[in-house]
Amino acid sequence: MRREYGAEQPFIPLGIFKLRLPFIHYRWEWPEALQALLMCATCLGAIPVLTEVLGVSFEIALTMVIINGALYNLHVLLGDPVVPGWITPAIPLTIAYLTQYPIGPERTQALIALQLLVGIFFVLMGITGAAKKLINWVPDSIKAGILLGAGMAAVIGEVKPGGRFEQFPITILIGGLLALFFLFSRRFKEWRRQSKAIDSIAKYGMLPALAIALIIGPIVKELPIPQIEWEVFVPRFGELFREVTPFGIGFPALRLFVAALPMLFAAYIIAFGDFVTSKALITEADEVRKDEKIDFNENRSNLISGFRNIIQAFISPYTQLCGPLWAAVTAAVSERYKDGRDSMDSIFSGMGTFRIMTFVGVSLMPIVSLIRPVLPVALSLTLLVQGFVCTRIAMDIVKTNEQKGVAGVMGAVLAIKGAAWGLAAGILLYLLVESGKAEAKKVEA
Q1: Which residues, at least 6 apart from 438, have a Cβ–Cβ distance to it below 8 Å?
Q2: CA-CA distances (angstroms) from residue 20 to 80, 87, 274, 334, 429?
Q3: Mean pLDDT of 50-66
Q4: CA 134, CA 273: separation in Å to the nearest integer?
Q5: Which one, 29, 70, 164, 305, has the greatest CB density within 10 A?
Q6: Which of 365, 294, 278 is nearest to 329 (CA)?
Q7: Per-residue pLDDT for 442 more than 50?
Q8: What residue spans of 295-418 are helical by DSSP H?
């Protein structure tokens, strides 16, 4: 189904949702499909966290990743024009919270309680319409502070002592620099205009950087050489049901829900930054491409994210939680989308193709075994690009000197002390600095 110039991509209306089916309502995009086959390494990066924190086997963890990959497709299917992901900056906070409980059923029940609360809160924000109002109501300096904090936390987590950069310094350095160069460099954009070969490489977003990292890692002996397995993986649904779900280990006690409340608010504060980033990225793309009207609805995004969290809490509780945005890839797809309709027909064709193929990729053992060695590096590249995107958008949001100061201090506090401290610092500084400026203007008038 082909859209008219300036209209929305065709869809089947379902209330707030807009049903779009691949090959019917949007076309297949091969650059995103091929990029997704290697970028699913980041999705598979959840496996070491799941095995370490929940104590499950590699096979159960891979089954959980496959379930998570299937649910990602709900976003484009129901009208959300983004590549969804985890609540990534909240992962260290979530792990610290869970390690308060002994590994085993109680720790898993604590995760189930947290993810259920997160899902319910997302849904309530979407149903009441509070999500959209909240984004419009929150001052620009605090929005920017959340984005800065998320960006700083993503980068700090990689380069701090004991971080992944210490384990794979050469691979991450080269891969990270190349990813940022391919995606955002003005010089590279000039080269693209002058060379069809370079333009072809650029269409694949972060894929070239990750492919080079996969080659460099074994050469510098930071990564092992992949051992490709050609077997068919059979998901371990039975074991997953018995060892991880509330139907197998029991429903969490009330005290676990109460204990999870502070972590719930911290997770939503961080996820709020993803909603701000989503809106900024899609608005930026919409302004460039006049041939397509893009409808990003914060309430719809909250509802779909909430549904994913609730479903996974019952069948596959996930330490990464279910967030509304994979910022690095959404930015990469948006950059190619800006090249015009001949390059990418619709924002939904790029986002939808990518998520379908990551689901396919995490389900195929040849792909899983090929990229298994590079999993931690892929996660690092994603976080570094996310840090770049978050800080860039944050600086675009703030205009006045007062806003820049509030956002900068708030971002630093959030990155170092956590979401609750960061939000408190941002609100206090806004009241002391920006509201004072408003009063001064009234006196002058």
Answers
A1: none
A2: 10, 25, 23, 19, 44
A3: 94
A4: 12
A5: 305
A6: 278
A7: no
A8: 298-315, 327-337, 347-363, 365-371, 375-397, 401-417
The answer to whether residue 281 sits within a structural domain is: yes
Domain assignment present for residue 442? The answer is no
* Interval 120-144 mean pLDDT: 86
Tell me the C-alpha distance between 239 and 237, whole Å: 6
Structure tokens at 17: 């949702």
* Mean pLDDT, the chain, integer: 89
Q: What is the 3-state secondary structure (H, E, C) of 72-110?
A: HCHHHHCCCCCCCECCHHHHHHHHHHHCCCCCCHHHHHH
CA 6 from centroid of its chain's CA atoms: 28
pLDDT digits (tens, 9 = 90+) for 137-174: 888 898 888 888 888 888 888 898 988 899 999 999 99
Side-chain-side CA neighbours of residue 96 (13 Å): 10
Helix (H, G, I), strand (E, B), or coil: what is residue 119? helix
φ/ψ (deg, to 5) at 227 = -110, 100
Note whether residue 56 is domain-resident. Answer: yes
Q: Kindly tell me the sign of the dihedral angle through the C-alpha atoms of 382, 383, 384, 388.
A: positive
State the virtual CA torsion across 182, 36, 222, 387 in degrees, nearest 10. Answer: 50
Beta bridge mates, 275? none
Helix (H) / strand (E) containing 275: helix 254-288
Burial, 28: exposed, middle or buried (Cβ in 10 Å; 0-12, 13-18, 19+)? middle
Give the mean pLDDT of 181-205: 84
What residues have CB less than 8 Å from 347, skipping those under 6 apart?
9, 81, 282, 285, 289, 292, 294, 333, 334, 337
Q: Domain residues for 390?
A: 27-395
Q: How many domains does the chain have?
A: 1
C-alpha neighbours within 13 Å on the C-beta side of residue 172:
21
**Residue 306 counted as domain residue:** yes
Distances in Å between the Cα of 104 and the Cα atoms of 67, 161, 216, 255, 315 are: 21, 29, 38, 17, 17
The span from the CA of 238 to the CA of 60, in Å, is 9
